[in-house]
Write a structure and sequence with these properties.
- The protein is α+β, with helices and mostly antiparallel strands and 270 residues long.
- It folds into two domains: 122 residues, Pnp Oxidase, Chain A; 136 residues, predicted glycosyltransferase like domains (Thrombin, subunit H).
- The chain is built from three helices and 17 strands.
- The strands form three sheets. The chain has an eight-stranded antiparallel β-sheet, with helices on one face.
- The longest helix has 31 residues.
- It starts with 5 loop residues before the first strand and ends with a helix.
Length: 270
């Protein structure tokens, strides 16, 4: 008799439904992660992303210039590692490489080389300490402004108008903010993960000024919009940063209480 939540595949007990859901969701969103390849008694780690699930296995983005190593791993059957973040959890599994797919099409404009991996029989996940992330609803009164600034620029200096990137806030935590970057007309937003960003968050009578970097976009680009996030620079390194963190936590706490009151009203009216 199987434990509830456990599935069978090819006569073996495999992952729980929660494990499978984490993997399916991550693949559907093309989540970024790390592909770890064994070589000469050590592991080489490469940035990658989950691309698709097919009948034969799972496709992930291939590292550039490593086809020879990948072919060796296919021949030997040696396991490779995959890890990625799913909410507050780090998810990991080890499987064999089955093959290579050249020019796998992600969308109408983008193709990448892909590695075909076995479906995992086991997944390990660990909980990481997470900042509470509150969804920002329309009418919440929270405003977000973002500028691209130079490495030597002072955060307190007002940037030029041309440096501002139009952005809509989606959620907020003490560690970062979820955003939708919006381009002009038919052009995508001029922003990348390499840019140093000046972020202003305004909530009621509070105005916070922070520094950060864009996270890699989630999924494919939607027209001239990019769904992504901004990770704040460590605020614990100096007194001014700790003051900003205190104010930020106060704003997140107020929004969290407002969210709880709204959910309570909706529950009573249901």
């Amino acid at each position: 008799m199987l434990t509830p939540g456990v599935r069978l595949r090819q006569g073996h007990i495999v992952m729980t439904n929660d494990d499978l859901d984490m993997l399916h969701n991550a693949v559907a969103r093309n989540v970024g992660g790390v592909l770890s390849l064994p070589s000469a008694g050590m592991l080489r780690h490469y940035k990658s992303r989950l691309l698709a699930e097919i009948d034969d296995g799972i496709l992930v983005e291939a590292p550039n210039g490593e086809n020879a190593l990948l072919n060796e791993l296919i021949a030997s059957g040696a396991p490779v590692g995959v890890s990625f973040r799913q909410g507050p959890r780090k998810v990991m599994f080890a499987v064999s490489v089955l093959g290579l797919h050249a020019s796998w099409r992600i969308n109408a404009d983008t193709c990448v080389d892909a590695v075909l991996l076995q479906h995992p029989d086991q997944i390990k996940s660990t909980q990481r300490r997470a900042n509470y992330r509150v969804e920002i609803r329309k009418g919440s009164g929270v405003l977000l402004r973002v500028w691209r600034i130079g490495e030597q620029a002072r955060l307190q200096d007002q940037p030029m108008e041309a440096q501002e990137v139009k952005a809509e806030i989606r959620d907020l935590s003490a560690g970062g903010v979820g955003v939708k970057f919006i381009g002009n007309e038919d052009q995508p937003p001029r922003i990348s993960v390499e840019d140093r960003l000046r972020i202003q968050i305004i909530h009621r009578n509070q105005s916070l000024l922070l520094e950060g970097n864009m996270r890699p976009p989630t999924g494919s680009q939607n027209g001239n919009n990019i769904i992504s996030g901004i990770q704040f620079k460590n605020l614990e390194s100096d007194l001014e940063g700790r003051r900003t963190m205190t104010l930020l936590m106060r704003v997140v706490g107020e929004l969290q209480r407002e969210e709880a009151r709204l959910l309570s009203r909706l529950a009573r009216s249901a």
